[in-house]
Write a structure and sequence with these properties.
about 450 residues, single chain, elongated, about 20% strand, alpha/beta, Threonyl-tRNA Synthetase, Chain A, domain 2
């Protein structure tokens, strides 16, 4: 064999090995160039085959008849830009008159096959302009988070989307969220990523873990308050409601509604207050909400109603006071009793990992997106961590959080333990640590509040 043949065989073999073992490296070395050429060469024929072209206009047909020229062909959307990324290609198109963004969303699977890409998703940027994000490999199989992140206050990175973009949890945009998932679906890992992302921020963490604290108590150094049983949880939620009412009094006292104050500077929540007056925001993480709603006796029923009422009040009124809810559970439906549906209606963010039945998926997405329900019940059991994330607008994404062990999350919390604020209202619920050890001991039941 000639030297050229040997070189070609080595290159092909290297490309095949990279594509099998390191798909990200293959994409950056070989895939991005081949995919760009393939898209540009096939573009017009693929758009025509997928029904994404428009017939020529009347004046072009008339001009062709007058000049005895061939009838002009149908026109595909105009390419505004084609940008390679570390996971795929981003194709920005200008729609022709008569085309609709929904046509491209419906044809995304056909485009994926035609361009030989792993996945294609579309979204409308503005009127007449859409963006096709094409991925060259399965980015969710081995999650690698990008190094450049757009971090802001109360906005953390939690997962990677199937189109290669980053999925953020923005508490100021979506204050309250619901996370569902069966056992061993990856729900706990998702929760650890939330805690790890919040740990370096100036925020108070409050946890309710009725599994005797096995999930949240290893992270106790970064928590301002923790409850490991429903009785303590009821007292803790009452304390949060009381703090919320005090914060509203502070906001009213500092609203600055005099005639010379511009409308944009009138305080309506804690983020409009000056830095030296702004209360510390609080994120409340409930590990298993069903344990707070179940009851067997009359006394437990009274406690349950007290807990759900407090959660509903925090969900309805807590945003302006800087109190945000993260509700987790395996199921979250009307069978948990009165008030549950009202609480779910206030939880704008929805995330569903693998569920055991379609009803559980309907609990998360049935009222916002039927397509998301179908995607949630199709998550395979062997792909732990895969989830569907949506919101009340009807949009949804397939995501996967990077694997974070309990040890890694505990180390992050211990490293930022000095950021744990000491809030007077929550002092009775501060987790107690034995000496210098990071091992938390169970909380004793808080003393009941007396009139």
């Amino acid at each position: 064999m000639t030297a050229f043949t040997v070189t070609l065989v080595l290159v092909v073999a290297s490309a095949g090995l990279l594509r099998w073992r390191r798909p990200a490296w293959y994409w950056l070395t070989f895939g991005v160039t081949l995919a760009t050429i393939r898209v540009l060469v096939r573009y017009a024929s693929v758009m025509d085959a997928c029904g994404l072209t428009v017939p020529p206009s009347r004046w072009r047909l008339a001009l062709a008849r007058m000049t005895s020229r061939p009838v002009p062909e149908s026109r595909p959307p105009r390419i505004l830009s084609l940008r390679p990324t570390c996971t795929g290609l981003v194709l920005r198109l200008k729609l022709r008159p008569g085309q609709d963004a929904f046509d491209f969303a419906a044809a995304s699977d056909r485009l994926r096959h035609s361009f030989s890409m792993y996945g294609v998703t579309s979204r409308e940027l503005r009127s007449g302009v859409i963006e096709l994000r094409m991925t060259g490999y399965d980015v969710l199989k081995r999650v690698q988070m990008p190094t450049r992140l757009d971090t802001r206050p109360m906005r953390i990175l939690v997962a990677l989307r199937e189109d290669g973009s980053v999925h953020y949890r923005d508490y100021r945009a979506i204050p309250h969220a619901l996370t569902l998932g069966a056992t061993e679906s990856g729900k706990s890992v998702y929760q650890r990523n939330l805690v790890a992302g919040l740990a370096p921020m100036d925020v108070a963490l409050v946890g309710i873990d009725c599994k005797q604290g096995v999930e949240l108590f290893p992270l106790a150094r970064r928590f301002s308050a923790l409850a490991d049983n429903p009785n303590t949880a009821a007292e803790l939620l009452d304390a949060l409601v009381s703090r919320m009412e005090d914060i509203y009094q502070l906001i009213r006292a500092e609203q600055r509604i005099t005639a010379d104050v511009p409308d944009a500077e009138i305080a309506a929540d804690i983020w409009d207050l000056p830095d030296h007056l702004r209360p510390t925001p609080i994120v409340v993480l409930v590990d298993e909400v069903a344990e707070l709603a179940l009851f067997a006796t009359k006394e437990e029923e009274k406690r349950r109603d007290r807990i759900i009422t407090a959660l509903v009040r925090l969900a309805q009124l807590g945003r302006a006071a800087g109190i945000y809810l993260e509700i987790c559970g395996q199921r979250f439906g009307s069978e948990l009793g009165k008030g549950i549906t009202m609480l779910r209606a206030q939880l704008t963010g929805r995330t569903a990992h693998r569920v055991n039945d379609e009803t559980s998926a309907n609990m998360a997405f049935g009222d916002i997106s039927p397509d998301a329900v179908l995607a949630a019940i199709q998550i395979p059991a062997e792909m732990r961590g895969i989830a569907i994330a949506g919101d009340s607008t009807g949009g949804w994404h397939r995501i996967r959080a990077p694997h974070t062990s309990l040890r890694q999350a505990a180390n992050i919390c211990n490293r930022h333990a000095d950021r744990t604020p000491d809030l007077p209202e929550l002092a009775p619920f501060r987790p107690v640590l034995t000496g210098t050890s990071a091992t938390p001991v169970p909380l004793s039941k808080a003393a009941p509040v007396t009139a």
